Amino acid sequence: MKKIRILLADDHQLMRKGLRLMLEQQPDLAVAGEAGDGREAVALAKSLKPDVVVMDIGMPNLNGIEAAQQITQSHPEIAVVMLSMHSDESYVLRVLKAGAKGYLLKDSAEADLIKAVHAVAGGKSFFSPAISKILLDDYVRKLKRSGSEDAYDLLTPREREILQLIAEGKSNKDVANLLNLSVYTVETHRSNIMEKLHLRGVPELILYAVRKGIIS
Amino acid sequence: MPDPMPASSQKNISRTRAPGEDSQSEEHSRQLGRILFAAFAGLLFLLILGGLNALLSVRKLSGIEQEVNRRFVTHSQALSAIVISVHVYDDQMEQSLLRGQKTADSAKPFDPVTRSAEIHAALLSYPSDEEPDEQLLVQELLQVLTQQENAFAATSSWGPEDRDKRTHLFIGEQLIPQRMRFLQVSQEISLLNRKKLGEEKTALDVNFVNVQTRIQWMVILSLTAGILLSLVTGLYILRLERQGRLRYQALLRGREELEGLSARLLEVQEEERHSISRELHDEVGQTLGALLVDVGQLSKLVPPGDRAIHGQIDSIKSVAERAVKSIRDMALLLRPPMLDDLGLVPALEWQAREVSRRSETEVEIVSENVSEKLSDEIKVCIYRLVQEALNNASTHAAAKNVKVSVIQAAGEISVEVSDDGRGFEPERQRGMGILGMEERVKRLGGTLALQSTPGKGATVKAELPLPSAKSL
């Protein structure tokens, strides 16, 4: 079985050492390289062509978000897992917009890193479980204080199904095949979902799905 | 870093004023006011005195002159009355003598007694001043008159035959010379009078010149005093004005220095926060993170059955996690990396959610056209301003809802934070927080407006100019 090749990017050597130790205990994982800042990470991603980049947000020269954006733009096949200290949705959304597939809180890196690497290598998203709880808490509190309804209740069962599939990273065509629908119908459902939930773009949709616990 | 000492020592100099100096200078200026008042009063008194003196002197001189003229006129009139009466007496005497030669009866009889009485009356009515020369001359007149009277009395003893012979002789030898003599004496009196008038007029002139000189001196004195006084006053006013200007300049300079200092203070504070935050996050935070990873590794190496060691490891983990969390909170408070990582609006949204999580206040962020390339200064200013306003709204004003709007337009960016809390009185209640906001906004050339009524919420609005190079 082919090993999953990983690039580690963190400006702290101690942190990189710990992460490497953890990853290399897995038989199917291999650390292909280490980068000390964002710029180096971009360069190494281009030369090493790893399957997964595990990257810290706060790095000198080029921060992790910018680096992730550059990597996913030039190499969409590389999956980025972002390591972050922040559990706020501003960060999650920004990271999603940068094209990262996974969002891992540093607190729980030790517990979830292996799972996250496997998930993104398999084309899925991964978010630390704590994230979705915090996002949901914020959302519920806001709904309660403003007295508005949860728009999720407005979605039809079919729309909920499609929402989950899109959030998991499936394209319109994949969804159409899976559900035996025409691509056109899927597109219509998709725009209805966006409108009902007041979402702009796929990153917001993924964030919404994470918040609702639809994906993790 | 520049040495802050020069600025502070300068400040000390301008501030080291004795506490009693103000009251001292007040006393000084009050005293000066009194002196000036006295000087002006003195000048006025001098002017009034001079004027009165001149007026009185002139009035007195003109009185004397009138008196002199009057005396001369009365003397002249009296003299001419005497002369006329003597003339009449002599004429009548002459005619009576000549008439008596031809016919004894005549139309007009000569009455020597009445005429003589008239002359005597005129002589007596001559003003009798203490003027010996004049009196002597008047006495001489009287003598001449007496001679005449006596001579005429002698004619009555003449017989008719004598009368023809002696009349002409009497007229030629007695009457005419006596008449001449009389005229001569009266002429002398008149001359004496005129001379006296001349003398008195000269004396008057001298007096007048004296008065004139006195008035002149008075005017010169007043004028000099006036000029001196206005000179002194003018100089004093100039000095006061210069002092006032200097003080005003010192005040301005002091304020400028203070503003510069507080701007620098903010800058230093922000830098310091940045570096402490970075230090905490990068060094302590990351080290602890690595520690956590290692502990995780360690727990995997320990056989699952060894509960005691696993308990210890879990305890170490939770302590380390607590430390990580508190260090992260500190670092975030000092300098949220969101500003650098995400840009202004997401950082504000993060802040809004933080406030919502911690308190009962719900915060809504609205943004329009906010560029992602704002300068660091402006981002930090807006961020701190919103932070302060949100803190006020949630802790002091107990607001339920806060709306934050950030709107960028050509050349400026405006931030408005309005809440539905308790409100305050912007004129009176200005805490350090509001001062800090003002300071930050002013430093970037912007304006800050506070609007609030107790019980009706508060609105903080700031407008910041954007560098024109970037908006173009």
Question: What would your notes on this structure say?
Answer:
The complex is a heterodimer of chains A (216) and B (472). Chain A has 216 residues and is of the alpha/beta class. Chain A contains ten helices and six strands, in the order βαβαβαβαβαβααααα. Chain A has two domains: 4-131, Response regulator (Rossmann fold, 3-Layer(aba) Sandwich); 149-211, Arc Repressor Mutant, subunit A (Orthogonal Bundle). In chain A, strands 2-1-3-4-5-6 form a six-stranded parallel beta sheet, sandwiched between helices. Chain B has helices at 5-15, 21-102, 112-124, 132-155, 160-301, 307-334, 338-341, 344-358, 376-396, 432-443, 468-471; strands at residues 362-368, 401-409, 412-419, 447-452, 458-465. Chain B has a five-stranded mixed beta sheet, covered by helices on one side. In chain B, helix 9 (376-396) links the parallel strand 1 (362-368) and strand 2 (401-409). In chain B, helix 2 packs antiparallel against helix 5. The A-B interface holds A 11-12, 14-15, 17-19, 21-22, 25, 57-58, 63, 65, 85-86, 88-91, 93-94, 106-107, 109-111, 137-138, 141-142, 145-146 and B 281-282, 285-287, 289-290, 292-297, 300, 321, 324-325, 328, 337-338, 340-342, 346-347, 349-350, 353-354, 356-357, 362, 400.
Could you provide a short overview of the structure?
Helix content of chain A is 55%, strand content 14%. Chain A has helices at residues 13-24, 38-48, 64-74, 89-97, 109-121, 129-146, 157-167, 172-179, 183-197, 201-211, and strands at 4-9, 29-35, 52-56, 79-84, 102-105, 126-127.
